[in-house]
């Protein structure tokens, strides 16, 4: 591995014009493809294997032409204080608004409040339901404007009017904090390298990689039904790993220059050593992201694969374009430590009787940990354990209009409907009765209705609405609790249990669907998939790290440390987004259940990112150990060369992720915060404290590997042993003995 990458790095350095041209051409091609591609529609949210999805598919089959997947809008009207919606003037205003809404070319149907029993009991609130032929993301802007204009005209007539549903769904915005995150990354790079040129290389290559990845996603979005969140996730992860991977290689390049090597040779060795760590770190991220496919939720699979593709691009750019740009930069990228030598040249020129150079902060910290491993280990584990305590109260759900900020019309419409019709009105359940196998479908429909009316927590049940064939009917059930509550979930399960009795009596199958039931099924599916996903991802990465470190205990320690950091990060997410701690600082206007996919998503992404630091830091330790240093001294040496770079990489990754906290999309906001805090815990507590403490306690046992397994594993040479052997034949013989 190291020898191949060494040759690749030298080739890219020499043929830098050709390499740069290839990447610029790819960026241009992706940009042209994105510019000419049709706009992305709404990403498919089908959930194979769930009852809600089965019912949805049945509706498509038995009720054709009803646009079951089309956008919906609820235009909610409220009369001024002391007046009612049944007053003649207000009734005329609403009917005029309904007529204007029905004129739209994409409108499938509009339900008049006065003929559809959509006026509250006290007469103060009414709503008109609008259904469209296409999804919310596919609606023409003119259609959305017509909806808003109709509502505004009703407001001008004296009514309070708000619009709920997904018809006004917009592409989420990330906000200005994303730019701040990149700016923080730039500052950290300048401090790390002490040079604007060296600092600019990782930023430039990361932006090129993200540009290619996001543009490719945009070009394929319509064909593959990729939602807007997919590109945001790819941008988030692509920026973070792109900067970090380039940082690793540029840092190693400067270290090689400091050892007196020529620039082309230094570039080759940087790619051969740090580049090997980048390849395996990137592989762990890709495994974690692609592994999301085991959940069998197409949207999550597409997000993971798209983000994994961006990571692959980041790895390839780091291995090829960074050495090419180093060739362009020439002497403007200085050897590591050159500034300090210039400032202290007279002192450095002294003979061996002069004082040795002061150890850097990484060396001093590692030396302290090696002397006090038990205390550091206990403090780190207890601290992460305390942070993880809120995770015991984790409540999962999917966001609805009730989780929107109060400044949005969707949230105000949600509140008005709750006020006029009860909290459960915002999450109606649709019960589909398939009586095709029943001898008496009408009796089956009646029995289902009667059983549901007798259940606890039901406010209203509509009469069965059969299809033309008369073999399938829909029943709308209004719970007395809000959509994301435990009571509503219990009601869904109770209806399904009652459906089992109906099937045994009549042969008719009862299915519960609707957005609320779909959210419940998604949460359950994600919970069921978490353990298999964890076993798959951690297991594959564990095998990969055994090959990299040629050890059993080091990969095991890496996996256990990751679990600690993920639990602590989930605890922080619960504290902020569910309990409301620091919610004002984070811009969280509405607390509630944590997004259902957050745990499994954090497991996948954080594991991959955590292994970045593990691979880069511990390969330096193994490199020192293989070349004769004691286990404790190898830990110190690894920190001497790697702590500064890993610290900078972690701060950069945290800044990039934190930049997405300013997003208008609650899902993106939560992911940004969760990943940022997880990187903090993993980099600064696990990798910088727990890892060296455990390695110090294990000593030589940390690098133990059964001889039979050592012979069976391929030698990938991540530490660059083969490159050292090229310089020193005696060392080559020594390495063979090791």
TrEMBL record:
Primary site of residence: membrane
Location of the protein in the cell: Cell membrane
Domain of life (superkingdom): Bacteria
Annotated membrane topology: Multi-pass membrane protein
InterPro entries: MMPL_dom (IPR004869), Mycobact_MmpL (IPR050545), SSD (IPR000731)
One Gene Ontology cellular component: plasma membrane
Residues annotated as domain SSD: 196-328
Keyword Ligase (UniProt): no
Transmembrane segments: 179-199, 206-224, 230-250, 271-297, 303-329, 374-394, 530-553, 560-582, 594-613, 645-664, 670-698
Protein name: MMPL family transporter
Source organism of the structure: Streptomyces griseicoloratus
